[in-house]
């Protein structure tokens, strides 16, 4: 098998290909997307912190100056929303936005959410156990982080069913070479979500509550577009990864019953187990960066104007960094995984994700001690954001 992010078999089983890339071609050009694949941990980690690369190049050059085709005109509403958030911009804009959002998204505020996260997890799991199981992703993994981020933002309960579809459609634009249909779907979702948030934020500006949107409306230096872009990012990043860590993580534990039993017998291992589940089968397999100045990686010159594809899934299984990397070890002590990224774009929501995962896994381990797989799951077609379609279990 070879690196082919559109092949369902590769998406399901990428780690053997990664091992071959690390050994034979740790820096290699992938013709179908015009990207350089970076497979080794040392290189991925260094490039995430290297300011000669960026999530965007538009702060230093136009599309034409960078030798790229301008984005199709129909995509403009999508990028107007996305580039008003902090993920796809670079300093000084990124620095300003992250500083402003951090004022409202403090560690103290995030930690204060723990009792509410626990209560949501306990209610979802109680309902799940009462009916004897079902789809763990649809019934527990998805509603928990969506409910948490919706409550945090202040989205009324009656509107929360809109959030997950909008987020999934928007994230379709981040897959490799998305279809024209997926692009149009992402644009429509971004427009609808932005319109909804614009109305909601104006209501909160005149009549603020105790939610994050209200807090952001009081940050004078934040424009309305930036507030909307930030809220879109917080929803997408605030639950897509958590949903897939939960699904991928339980699938990993069910395939490694010895480690699952070890965790059930010693719940104190939960913090290290969560870090290990993020390492062993990370939901974000690839993170892309533009090369803003010529660089050299592993003796290979990579010119300005191209994109590098940092293979997080490969880096997290690199034997140069992790002992016996293909073994799931819920007690793994030395675990510098990069599933949350590194450098200036390190995930702002990492503390909240860890709280959600701890409460979700902890509650299921306690309340569903006999949880078992009903049928082997199938992977969704996406590669960059990689997760299961469903996870059918009985309790």
Detailed description of the structure:
By secondary structure, the chain is α+β, with helices and mostly antiparallel strands. It has a single domain, classed as Orthogonal Bundle (Cytochrome p450). Helix content is 50%, strand content 9%. It is built from 17 helices and 10 strands. A 5-stranded mixed beta sheet has the order 1-2-8-5-3, with helices on both faces. The protein has a 3-stranded antiparallel beta sheet with strand order 4-10-9. Helix 7 packs antiparallel against helix 9 and helix 13 runs parallel beside helix 17. The two termini are 36 Å apart. The mean pLDDT is 94.
Ordered list of secondary-structure elements with their pairings:
Blueprint: H1 8-12, H2 15-24, E1 27-30, E2 35-38, H3 41-49, E3 53-54, H4 76-82, H5 93-104, H6 107-112, H7 114-130, E4 133-135, H8 136-141, H9 143-153, H10 163-171, H11 180-206, H12 212-217, H13 224-255, H14 257-265, H15 270-280, E5 286-291, E6 295-297, E7 300-302, E8 307-311, H16 312-315, H17 350-367, E9 372-373, E10 392-394
Parallel strand pairs: 2-8
Antiparallel strand pairs: 1-2, 3-5, 4-10, 5-8, 6-7, 9-10
Helix pairs in contact: 4-11, 7-9, 7-17, 9-13, 10-11, 10-13, 11-13, 13-15, 13-17
Structure at a glance:
By secondary structure, the chain is of the alpha+beta class. The chain contains 17 helices and ten strands. The chain has one domain: Cytochrome P450 (Cytochrome p450), CATH 1.10.630.
């Amino acid at each position: 098998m070879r690196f082919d992010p559109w092949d369902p078999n590769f998406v399901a089983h990428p780690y053997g290909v990664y091992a071959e890339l690390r050994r034979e071609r740790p820096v290699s050009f992938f013709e179908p997307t015009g990207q350089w694949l970076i497979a080794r941990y040392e290189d991925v980690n260094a490039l995430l912190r290297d300011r000669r690369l960026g999530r965007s190049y538009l702060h230093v050059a136009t599309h034409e100056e960078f030798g790229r085709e301008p984005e199709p005109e129909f995509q403009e509403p999508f990028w107007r929303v996305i580039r008003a958030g902090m993920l796809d911009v670079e300093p000084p804009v990124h620095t300003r936005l992250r500083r402003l959002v951090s004022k409202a998204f403090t560690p103290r505020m995030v930690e204060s959410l723990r009792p509410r996260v626990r209560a949501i997890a306990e209610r979802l799991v109680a309902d799940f156990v009462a009916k004897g199981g079902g789809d763990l992703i649809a019934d527990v993994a998805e509603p928990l982080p969506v409910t948490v981020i919706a409550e945090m933002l202040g989205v009324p309960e009656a509107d929360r069913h809109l959030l997950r579809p909008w987020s999934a459609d928007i994230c379709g634009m981040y897959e490799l070479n998305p279809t024209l249909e997926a692009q149009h779907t992402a644009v429509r979702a971004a427009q609808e979500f932005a319109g909804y948030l614009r109305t909601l934020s104006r209501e909160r500006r005149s009549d603020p509550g105790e939610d994050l949107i209200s807090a952001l409306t009081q940050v004078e230096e934040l424009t309305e577009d930036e507030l909307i872009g930030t809220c879109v990012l917080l929803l997408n990043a605030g639950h897509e990864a958590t949903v897939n860590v939960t699904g991928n993580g339980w699938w990993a534990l069910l395939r490694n019953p010895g480690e699952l039993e070890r965790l059930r017998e010693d719940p104190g291992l939960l913090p290290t187990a969560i870090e290990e589940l993020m390492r062993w089968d990370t939901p974000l397999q690839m993170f892309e960066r533009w090369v803003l100045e010529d660089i050299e990686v592993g003796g290979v010159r990579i010119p300005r104007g191209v994109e590098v594809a940092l293979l997080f899934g490969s880096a997290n299984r690199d034997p140069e960094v992790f002992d016996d990397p293909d073994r799931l070890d819920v007690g793994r002590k030395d675990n510098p995984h990069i599933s949350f990224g590194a450098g200036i774009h390190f995930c702002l929501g990492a503390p909240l994700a860890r709280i959600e995962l701890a409460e979700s896994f902890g509650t299921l381990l306690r309340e569903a001690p006999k949880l078992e797989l009903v049928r082997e799951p199938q992977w969704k077609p996406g590669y960059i954001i990689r997760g299961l379609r469903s996870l059918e279990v009985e309790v």
